[in-house]
Amino acid sequence: MPASDLIYAGRNVDFTRAITKPEFSKRSVLDHDSFQFVELWLKREKHKDALFYWTQARSFFEASKILQGTASPLTSYYCMLNATKTLLAVKGVKARESHGVSGEAVNSRTSLANEESSIRHSGILAELSKYLGETERNPTHSLDDILSNLPFIHRAYVLTRNKDAELFIRIHKPRYVRHPTANRVWLAAEVAGHEADRRVLRWVPSHFEIDDGYTQSRVIRSTQRVRWFPRQGANLTTKETAITRLRSRHSKLRLDVVSISATETLWYLKRRLASYTIIDRYGLTLMMMAMHRLSELARYDPKGLSRHLSGRENWLLNEFLSLAPAQFVDEISSEITGLEFRMPAVRR
């Protein structure tokens, strides 16, 4: 008997972008503008300070749309900074009024591999990393490595670097499923096309495996199970404890199961390939680290930034500068509210 979709509070428990406290029992938000919904949500929840930061984030976001690449990193970074302040204010996290990140060029040659970004011990980005529960030991990463770990520009990275293999593979219908008889749940997702080849799936993270119980499609699943509550006789405390366990497992899975914002959310699994430097950080942290370094160049070395933007990496950088702000806002909107955001045409 195969596993069945996990049902909680009358709804299927799909995989969500929120990392720390996803609201599995709530409906998705159907909205063209997550800025507007989060603003209304902050007003309803009476987060006055957070609302100020969120308004600032939106202003910087809009400003970035009309600036050239040599200037837009400044406003895009301050959009991310204020959006992160919003999250920390909502969650009651106290942070020093410093950036919590610094950068430097480690060689005079113009190359993204020589531009480094480092998380500090305190400050806004440092507190974001702590709040998300990141355990990556290396605080310093090159811009080249950071960009290679971001799925929404990975194709641009692969083509720019002439890579033979892609780090991310597309997965479909990621959802939590339940054992037919035991009180255990896990993540399952479908893989299609050439990505369903066992040779491709050989390099998935060690805590994923192929589920050979399916013959009509290729399904992969997480190997670690979460203890759930029985179908009959479970009280509220038992259910809340099970949800807490699932949220804890979910946050760890989100390091490897990542999304791209589009008309509908596209999900990918990050493989373990020797040709890439794997960074065990969430996309929110990586985007902010990269944008901070580019904003430093915009402020203190605009000619150096111009050389990057006109060199062989220009397409990759321009894709990042164009796409990262909206990707960041979509992801942090889910993190602030715990809700999943979808375009109105995509109902789930």
Provide structural commentary.
The chain is of the alpha+beta class. Helix content is 41%, strand content 18%. The chain is built from eleven helices and 15 strands. It has helices at 34-44, 48-64, 72-90, 124-132, 143-148, 154-161, 198-201, 236-253, 283-300, 302-310, 314-337, and strands spanning 4-5, 7-8, 11-12, 29-30, 101-105, 115-119, 140-142, 168-178, 184-191, 208-210, 218-222, 226-227, 257-260, 266-270, 341-342. Strands 1, 8, 9, 10, 11, 12, 13 and 14 form an eight-stranded antiparallel beta sheet that branches. β2 and β3 (11-12) form a beta hairpin. The radius of gyration is 21 Å and the shape is globular. The two termini are 26 Å apart.
Main traits of this protein?
single chain; 348 residues; alpha+beta; eight-stranded antiparallel beta sheet; three-stranded antiparallel beta sheet; 11 helices; 15 strands; 41% helix; globular
